[in-house]
Design goal:
- It contains 14 helices and no strands.
- With about 350 residues, the protein is mostly helical.
- It has one domain.
- Helix 3 runs antiparallel to helix 4.
- The longest helix is centred in the first third of the chain and has 53 residues.
- It comes from Funiculus sociatus GB2-A5.
- This is AI-2E family transporter.
- Keywords: Membrane, Transmembrane, Transmembrane helix.
Length: about 350
Amino acid sequence: MRLGQWVGLIALIISLYILWKIRQVVLLAFMAIVLATAINQLVKWLVQRGVNRGIAIALSIISIVTIVTIILALIVPPFYNQLPQLIEWVPQGLDRLRVWAESLQSRLPGQSLEDARVFSRLTEQLPGFINRLLTNFYSLFTNSIQIILSLLLVLVVTIMLLANPSSYWKAFLLLFPSFYRQRVNKILSKCEVALSGWLIGILFNMTVITILSGLGLWILQVQLPLANALLAGLLTFIPNLGPTLSVIPPAALALLDAPWKAGAVIVLYILIQQIESNLLTPLVMKHQVSLLPEITWLSQVAFGIFFGFLGLLLALPLVVVAQVWLKELLVKDILNTWQEDGEDNQDSPMAESEETST
């Protein structure tokens, strides 16, 4: 390779290394972009009704911060107050569940008896697991300074993006060759549409799941139905893993009353997730980017391993954006226009971009 190519390769390696070292900051910046995209839809709606853009931004941010504060005030204090009681009482409830399971052993023949014994042994191991889980939740709430600082950083960057989005948009376009900037501008617009559609769909799902969870827990007379319902709705943002985590607090609270009630809560949440996956998601799919379940699972695992909880939280919007780029850049602009030597290449998007730029 020539000297210039070596310099470019070394610069690329150094850039990737720097990005890896500051990956948490990059993810926080992406979170700000996702929030700015969502808030900008509300800002545009207000501007279309004659509100000044600066005032529209202020009203939108104040409204969202107020709603989030109210939701957190309804969720965090009740669970925080219940944690010491849960740490003490949940093992007792699990002991009651184990005794109840053992009482079934004498009534169930054959394979059913063996299943009951396995269930009994499982309940013997659950108290330690539940204790560790609740203690970790307690540590999460008591060591929240870093989370607060990260949220403040995201909020500041979001406001900056909303105040002057075109400047950042144009700055990003400068990273690409001049002949390809018009094409990148179209891809960015499609990313914005895809993110907006996905956000509309996920907010709709979160709202419906919150309502269904609240009604079900209220009928079962589980403690803190509103807080648990709001938590279930928020965790819907993390598909697959979120619903699994959301069932733990209400099931633990129900276990304090009766083992059968904990089972009823688990069945309730399974039914709600079936409604979400088989009814709600197809209804809103026209507003979302269609993602295969396997891709969703693999992306969550991969981003969770490499980037921790923040990567897990942002796995789906990252995949939504990545899918648009792969479809437009890799498939349409490269693979679909890949021709043998000597064939005409004038119809490719990159050729069109070159002609437009010249």
